[in-house]
Each structure stands twice: as C-alpha cells, then as structure tokens.
Design a protein that fits this description.
heterodimer, A: mainly alpha, about 70% helix, B: mainly alpha, about 0% strand, globular
Chain lengths: ~190, ~170
C-alpha cells in the first residue's frame, strides 16, 4: 500500500489537471477536431514542452537517470494504435485518461466508454497471435529519440519544440477567433 | 484574484498546460514511471497472453513486468478518478449525473457511440501498448520519435473520423 502512495498521488494530480483543463468533457475534446477550441493541442503540447524542460534540467544537475524503457519504439503497432485512439476519441468522445476524468465528473457516457475499453483490449490480446502481419517489427532503432535522430543536442530540440508549440498556439488562436466570429454571425 | 479560470471554472490553456506539464515531470522524477492509464487492463488479462502480445512492447516497463509489479497502475488509475472527482465536485458545486452529447443527439445514440468508441480505443491501446497519457504525453516529454509519430497519427485518426462522426458533435 505505502509503496504505491506516490502513484496514487501522482494519479490524483493528473486527474485534477485533466478535469481542470476541461478534458472530462467530450464536447471540449471534440471541439479540437472541429477546429473550434484548440485547448487539447495547446495543453498537451505545452505540457510536453514544460515536462521535457524540467526533466532535462534535472538531468543536467544529475538528479535522474535516463528512463530508456519508457521511450516507445517506433513500429506499426504504435502507428495503427495511435490512429485508432484518435478515431475512437471522435466516435466515442474520449481517450482512456479523459474517460476516467469524465466518469469522475458524473458522465455516464464516459463510464460506458471506459468499461467498453476492456473488451476491446482483450479482443486485441486474443486476436494478435492469429494475425499474420507483424505489427511489432521495429521501423526505427529501439528507443530512438529526436536528438539522436537529428544528431542535435537535446537543448536545441527543446527550443525547436518550444517554437513549434508557440506557432501552433498562435495558429490555434486564429482558428478559435474564426470560429467565434462564425458563432457571433449566426447569433449564438 | 487569480484570473486563470474560464466561466466553467476550468483553467485557461496556459495554466492547464503548466499544471499538466508539472505533473508529467513529477511522474518521471518521483516514481520514474510516467503516466499510465490503459495499462490497467493488462492487469486483467492472463499475463502469458499479454507478454506474448507485447514482446517488444512500446512501454515494456508497464506491460512486460509481472502483474505483481504493475499494481501501481491500478493505484494511479484510482488516483486519476479521485483527483478528477474532487476537482469536478468543486467546479460543478456538486455531483450531477449526465450523458454529455452534441446538440440534438439522442442519449441512446450517444451511448451506442460511446460504447463503440470505447471498444475501438481499447483495441488501439492494446495494439500501441499505451495511450495518449503514456505514449503521447510521457513519451514525447522524453523526446521519443515514436511518441511524436503517435501524436501525429492520433490527430490524423481524429480528423479522419470527424468526416463521418463530426456531425454528432457539430450541431
């Protein structure tokens, strides 16, 4: 119990951040794909840049060992799985974490979504041995990172990501303003 | 007065990003596991089957280890539920049950689509060996090429599905 307390606390903070970002709401999430509200893009990309910055800084001062096992390897499974997750988010309204946050906010559709993920998960675990295509053939070296791929120092990659995030943020602002103008024109 | 909130008491994107980024960094520094959600379903599958499927898994740390070592994912998932529950209680000034849906969409239609979407996402996260939190957020924070590719196809999948299912949110 006690050794799992950090995971529980980190989970609670993450759940709070999902709900406070408004990601428990499938309408808010899907407004991203309707180009009306870029919260999902902004918050995710911003969080990635900040987390990467903190992690890099802590590594610089010798605080953490690199966690290679946490770095996914590029294969067809990651690509097809990612596509299905995105498609499922629009069909069903959530991804796994946001479904939990949505259910915690009393959304019955989120609860149903989360429960139905289990048969889906089991379906693939059962199906994969019968599928001829090897989804796990690596498409790139194991645990490949952007700095390795580009042969560039991590700080430069981080700055590049930061700039990309800012540009995406501005682009999002532009689309949001356009959607607002359309709503106003319709008298909403 | 802190003006980082919108009308519905959700945080404006900048502040939400700061909070979420700090939590992801904490998960890398403190427990060194990152954030995981869909991995919890692997706890409910026969370990031999799961390990066979996820042999060179994207997130070997969470999926390949013995079930006993993965109990923390269940705790993390409970934590996510509890954390979101508490903040939504505060935001909504109480607990209200609802079926959230696009305007003009019937509750039954919404529930059928939610179930179908859940099924698709279940298959997707088993296949990818992780979800938006573990691969998308945690992996990208570690500069993983696979994680950025995952995010790209994630958005691509969303926009592709929008062509057929956007109308259920559009009204």
């Amino acid at each position: 119990m006690l050794e799992n307390l950090p995971s529980l606390l980190i989970g609670a903070l993450f759940g709070a951040s999902l709900d406070l970002a408004g990601f428990g709401s499938p309408r808010r999430l899907n407004d991203q794909f309707l180009l009306r509200d870029f919260s999902m893009f902004k918050v995710m990309f911003g969080a990635i840049v900040l987390a990467a910055s903190i992690y890099l800084l802590m590594q610089r001062i010798g605080f953490v060992p690199a966690a290679d096992s946490l770095i996914p390897t590029l294969d067809l499974a990651v690509l097809v799985g990612g596509f299905l997750l995105g498609a499922g988010l629009v069909v069903g309204g959530y991804c796994p974490g946001t479904a939990l946050a949505g259910a915690a906010g009393g959304r019955l559709d989120a609860l149903l979504f989360f429960v139905m993920m289990y048969p889906g998960y089991r379906l693939w675990v059962w199906l994969e041995p019968h599928v001829k295509l090897d989804f796990h053939a690596a498409l790139a070296p194991s645990h490949l990172t952007l700095p390795d791929l580009l042969a560039t120092p991590r700080i430069v990659v981080l700055i590049g990501l930061g700039v990309a995030c800012l540009l995406g943020w501005r682009l999002g602002d532009h689309f949001e303003a356009r959607a607002d103008a359309k709503r106003t024109a319709r008298g909403e | 007065m802190f003006s980082g909130f919108r009308v519905d008491r959700t945080l404006k994107p900048f502040f939400a990003a700061v909070l979420m980024g700090a939590v992801v960094a904490l998960s890398l520094l403190w427990t060194q596991t990152g954030i995981h959600v869909s991995g919890v379903f692997s706890l409910l599958c026969p370990p031999a089957q799961v390990n066979a499927v996820h042999a060179p898994d994207a997130l070997s740390c969470s999926i390949q280890s013995a079930a006993a070592d993965k109990g923390w994912i269940a705790w993390m998932v409970c934590g996510i539920f509890a954390g979101a529950f508490l903040t939504s209680l505060w935001r909504s000034r109480g607990l209200r049950f609802a079926i959230e849906r696009g305007n003009g969409v019937r509750p039954l239609t919404r529930l059928i689509l939610a179930a179908a979407g859940g099924l698709v996402v279940g298959v997707g996260s088993a296949l990818a060996g992780g979800c938006t939190s573990s691969i998308g957020l945690t992996g990208s924070a570690l500069f993983s090429v696979a994680a950025f590719a995952f995010l790209a196809v994630f958005f691509l999948g969303g926009f592709a599905a929008r062509l057929f299912f956007g109308k259920f949110w559009n009204a």
